[in-house]
Design goal:
This protein is α+β, with helices and mostly antiparallel strands and 267 residues long. It has eight helices and 14 strands.
């Protein structure tokens, strides 16, 4: 039987959703093949919690000691939305330790987590994207030139991350500054995009141009004539209410089957 570390939590506003995803994976993993260990990561605190007891992770080799028994892991199921599980940090750590994991690698994770850089690569491959401006917190008067170069309404959102935390829709020029402050409270970089009227579509898929691994979720807007790429989530939600498990079910895969498929790809 293989020991599987399910890492969840993280250091972003998606912490609670990530923990729900991790617990859902733990509840549905095939216990005939895998022994799950839900590892909660928050800042420098990495712990395996069971029966109201907490056992710290040894970050030197990613092991957990329970009494005299030292547990090592055959693979990692990555359920962290946001940093450090979706931006490449944990991926680099596990690569150095030689532990396989269920999400995209360092380069793809880091690129896709940065909305502006990801859009540049996607656009270079001939895919439609919304017009946008990439701003930095140290910029003086970051709102200057935005309205002159982009048309209202606008979406203002943190550049790094996949959630809606810190995002605002701006319909009036006078509301732009407050929206930027809100986003800069979440990130040192902000992306301002033109609004595209249309139907929002989401697709759990493999986008080979970005070299994604495991299950990823792509979001688009269809304006009636063209598809416009919005963003990619390399660690999408896996709660009971999340889109990807529903897609898998519609395709004929059980939740347990989805988990098994992801683990079989890396073990």
């Amino acid at each position: 039987m293989l020991n599987i570390a399910i890492v969840a939590g993280g250091n972003s506003g998606e912490y609670e959703i990530s923990m729900k995803s991790g617990r859902q994976v733990e509840m549905n993993i095939d216990l005939n093949r895998f022994r799950p260990f839900l590892i909660e990561i928050k800042g420098t605190k990495w712990n395996y919690k069971v029966e109201k007891k907490s056992f710290p992770v040894d970050k030197n080799d990613f092991t957990v000691s329970i009494g005299r028994h030292k547990i090592s892991f055959d693979a990692v199921f990555n359920a962290i939305h946001g940093s450090p599980g979706e931006d490449g940090k944990l991926q680099g750590y596990f690569d150095m330790l030689g532990i396989p994991y269920t999400s995209s690698g360092v380069t793809t994770s880091a690129l896709s987590f940065n909305k502006s850089f990801c859009k540049d690569v996607v656009s270079a491959n001939g895919i439609n994207v919304a017009r946008s401006i990439h701003l930095y917190k140290e910029d003086k008067h970051p709102e200057a030139g935005v309205i002159e170069n982009l048309r209202l309404p606008l979406f203002v959102k943190p550049n790094n991350g996949g959630s809606s935390v810190g995002m605002s829709k701006v319909n009036r020029k006078k509301d732009l500054k407050a929206a930027l402050v809100k986003s800069f409270n979440e990130d040192n970089e902000v992306i301002v995009e033109e609004f595209i009227k249309g139907r929002e579509l989401t697709c759990g898929d493999l986008f080979r141009k970005l070299n994604c691994k495991g299950i990823v979720r792509f979001d688009y807007i269809f304006n009636g004539r063209k598809l416009f790429f919005l963003e990619v989530n390399t660690v999408p939600g896996l709660t009971a209410a999340s889109i990807v498990p529903k897609m898998a079910k519609a395709y004929g895969w059980s939740y347990t089957g989805l988990i098994t498929k992801l683990l079989d790809e890396i073990i």
